[in-house]
Amino acid sequence: MGTPDTRQRILTAAEELFGQRGFQGVSIREITHLADANLASVNYHFGSKAGLIRSLVEHHLGSLNQERLDLLEQASANSGGATLPVEQILDIFFRPPVFRFVGPGRTFPGLLARLHNSCDPELIEVMLRVFGPLADRFLTELCRSVPHLEPRTLLARVNFMVGAMIHALAEGETMAQAFAGLEPRQQDPEFLTRQLVLFCAAGLRHE
Amino acid sequence: MGTPDTRQRILTAAEELFGQRGFQGVSIREITHLADANLASVNYHFGSKAGLIRSLVEHHLGSLNQERLDLLEQASANSGGATLPVEQILDIFFRPPVFRFVGPGRTFPGLLARLHNSCDPELIEVMLRVFGPLADRFLTELCRSVPHLEPRTLLARVNFMVGAMIHALAEGETMAQAFAGLEPRQQDPEFLTRQLVLFCAAGLRHE
DNA sequence: GGTGATATTAAACGATCGTTCGTTTCGAGC
DNA sequence: GCTCGAAACGAACGATCGTTTAATATCACC
């Protein structure tokens, strides 16, 4: 089997377990057991349990948000500075996380959803640092694209967007389908992205 | 000061603390300390820590969903069996939770958001039992009101709706405003309800 | 072959967790 | 006055938590 260095095995195991049961719901004994590593290796490689999840978040969300910023910059350049249509902005916003996080074995969205409701001040600080530049850039772009909304209204609706995406990513196949009595069919990233864009674009355009 | 029976004081304290830091993030020692009760009183009155949060969820969400079902039944009767407009259905769906949970001292939404991502099988069972009838009733009503959507699409978008509401309730004043650099102004329930209805109705109507 | 830095290991630490136990307090009913 | 059950209490239980320590293993390099 593929067993790279211990550090990477710990990260993989931690992502899976944190995504399933949250930060406080998983002990580093479980993580190191799944990673086939020693109990003390987490503290050796990451300093502490909090340092482990911090590495996890920075790695995943850092590159993800950089990809979104790059796509937005590129689209903005291609348009020659003209305001982008809402659908395009939203597609850039939704597509990277959906395609990264939807599918079998992608256990990060559960962790992402939990992080948004985290209480640990240290984790909140990480989230703000990782999401801050992204929020700034997309908000100004959306402000130009939907000028009829006052900032207060736009902010509220962007908050709806984020909630819709997180919820869909985190439990799209669990509770919602249990409610509807559907079979746990695999989610289609393209379908989900399209639905998110259509739903949220219509919601943003509305006066 | 108003100190009713111990059981009620425990419920109040638990709601506040669970809403702030989640089920696993709060010890029953903290709860009983805040409630000015003995450590063993939680196990005496609720059997266990899980029994405590179960009582909490059933009390809050049971009456809340009953109110929504009553409102929907009444609206359906008043319309003489005609299909209701989407905006009315959504208003009935959003208004009760928003007005109950938004405002100072309303600490339940954080708990609600966490419960939607809970991993405890027992809590999931409670959630399904409390939300099942509500989901059935609203989905059939929405299916009649937005007939152009196939069930799969409708289900995905209703999932967006739920996520938007939960996210707005749970952290409308924390992270979103921190991103935008806004002052933590008090949320207006009427504004939030209206925005949710407008945003989601437009999203649902879209082809 | 020895040396030193890096990595891994077993074992233990103190703290905190949820729960349980035996006792005491309290008030209504006879 | 007495009893009896509900309620509250202090104290302890066993378990598990994150973390630390000291010893051992691994391996490139001179």
What keyword list fits this structure?
207 residues; elongated; homodimer; 10 helices; mainly alpha; Tetracycline Repressor, domain 2; DNA-binding; 2 domains; 0% strand; Arc Repressor Mutant, subunit A
What structural class do the secondary elements of chain A suggest? mainly alpha
Query: Can you write the helix and strand succession of chain A as a string?
Result: HHHHHHHHHH
CATH class membership of the largest domain in chain A: Mainly Alpha
Strand content of chain A: under 5%
Set out the fold topology.
2 copies of one chain form a homodimer.
Chain A: H1 6-21, H2 28-34, H3 41-46, H4 49-78, H5 86-101, H6 108-116, H7 121-145, H8 151-171, H9 175-180, H10 189-205
Chain A binds a DNA duplex (30 and 30 nucleotides) through helix 3.
Structure description:
2 copies of one chain form a homodimer. Chain A is an all-alpha fold. Chain A folds into 2 domains: 1-47, Homeodomain-like (Arc Repressor Mutant, subunit A); 57-205, Tetracycline Repressor, domain 2, CATH 1.10.357. In chain A, 74% of the residues lie in helices and 0% in strands. The first copy, chain A, has 10 helices and no strands. In chain A, helix 1 (6-21) crosses helix 6 (108-116), helix 6 (108-116) runs antiparallel to helix 8 and helix 8 runs antiparallel to helix 10 (189-205). The longest helix of chain A has 30 residues, at 49-78. Chain A is elongated and about 55 Å long. The model of chain A has no long low-confidence stretch (mean pLDDT 86). The interface between A and B is large, with 59 and 59 residues. Chain A binds a DNA duplex (30 and 30 nucleotides) through residues 5-6, 27-29, 37-45, 48-49.
